[in-house]
Design a protein that fits this description.
With 185 residues, this protein is α+β, with helices and mostly antiparallel strands. The chain has three helices and nine strands.
């Protein structure tokens, strides 16, 4: 399975990567952190509500009254707000894409519609090999600019896929390719 969906003609080369569930972990950490604080608000609401309503408790929902117990009201608002935003966040993350576009007609290299650089400033394409923390080889696809700066497009464990993608970019831009071994899928 290829990470990039490659589309193009003589004038445009588009690399699209479906991110899907790759960013869900970050969202889960944020939701977990938020859950801890909302739980703290709930505890404060109950404790604060019980201490003030211990003498005269005619209203069972008094701990949600914003005048009598602001912790309860904040807890209620936070719970409703988070409940509405979690599905929106999940759908946005699951449907998100990374799109790299090399467009000869405009002379621009863009990432998700934002200009990165002009095509004439791209000097070469390179695959750099490194090890991850578990000492497994990971391969980084780089765009090298003529001023020496580098733009990392992707890093992944499949060496052949990185070589193939770098070869497609290099052939399209007609720039040198370093660390490249062309191999068809």
């Amino acid at each position: 399975m290829q990470r990039f969906q490659i589309n193009g003609d003589e004038e445009r080369l588009e690399l699209t990567m479906e991110l899907g569930y790759q960013r869900i972990l970050n969202g889960c950490l944020i939701v977990g952190f938020t859950f801890i604080w909302v739980t703290a608000l709930a505890v404060l609401a109950v404790v604060h509500g019980n201490s003030e309503n211990a003498s005269a408790s005619s209203n069972e929902w008094g701990y949600l009254n914003p005048r009598g117990n602001h912790f309860g009201f904040l807890w209620l608002l936070a719970t409703l707000f988070i409940g509405a935003l979690i599905p929106l966040y999940a759908s946005k993350v699951i449907n998100s894409k990374r799109v790299f576009l090399f467009d000869k007609s405009t002379g621009l290299f863009t990432h998700n519609g934002k200009t990165v650089t002009e095509l004439r400033k791209i000097d070469s394409v390179k695959v750099r090999h490194r090890n991850d923390p578990d000492e497994r080889p990971v391969h980084m696809l780089l765009i090298i600019y003529n001023d020496g700066f580098e733009e990392a497009l992707d890093n992944w464990y499949d060496e052949d896929e990185m070589y193939y993608t770098a070869g497609v970019i290099g052939e399209f831009l007609r720039v040198p390719q370093y660390g490249i071994r062309l191999k068809e899928f």
